[in-house]
Amino acid sequence: MNERSVVVVSAGLSQPSSTRLLADRLTAATVDELAARGITAKVTNVELRDLAHDVVNAMLTGYSGGALAAAVDAVKGADGIVAVTPIYSASYAGLFKSFVDILEADSLAGIPVLIGATGGTARHSLAIDYALRPLLAYLRADVQATAVFAATDDWATAGGDDDNPLPARIRRAGRELAETVADREPSAPAGLFDAVPSFTDLLGS
């Protein structure tokens, strides 16, 4: 079966959330582009707002259980990730960083990641390249070239792409992620081989 897993990590704190809206638009563009290549996308949404208490507990105890453990496993086993955070004080949201902090060191290594961010004004857009991109690059994720920032006014602008470049940029970013995901072999689900005993265990030594 020609299927790929796309995990959407959204760090918006409000409901409804412009961060989730951008994440949904980026995901839809990616899914459409994968479908055009004959690939079915299995989409998993990780809404960090719903996991906030579990994330804090995991930072304090070093243990991730329940819904948070499932979210971490989904991220580790993803073929592609759409990660979107609001920008506060010229950087990514603390909840987003806390979630990243509880991931194991190699969890994102080699995984294609499309990054997006939202903010009140366009002046926050630079945070994508001096804060968000370096963070994920440090974790050795395959950060896609096109990132998408959406300011509050971008959602209110009527008209076509000449009036508002956001829709075209979303399509371009989705196309890039889909191309990268399609060119890779499907990832094995996280934890697939965790239950396989080692030779040492089998020999009882």
Compact overview of the structure:
The protein is an alpha/beta fold. The protein contains 8 helices and 7 strands. The protein has one domain: Rossmann fold.
Kindly describe this structure.
The chain is α/β, with parallel strands linked by helices and 205 residues long. The protein has one domain: Rossmann fold (3-Layer(aba) Sandwich). The protein has eight helices and seven strands; from the N terminus they run E-H-E-H-H-E-E-H-E-H-E-E-H-H-H. Strands 1, 2, 3, 4, 5, 6 and 7 form a seven-stranded mixed β-sheet that branches. Strand 1, helix 1 and strand 2 (40-47) form a beta-alpha-beta unit. Helix 2 (52-61) crosses helix 4. The longest helix is centred in the N-terminal third of the chain and has 19 residues, at 18-36. It is globular, with a radius of gyration of 18 Å. The protein starts with a strand and ends with a helix. 38% of the residues are buried.
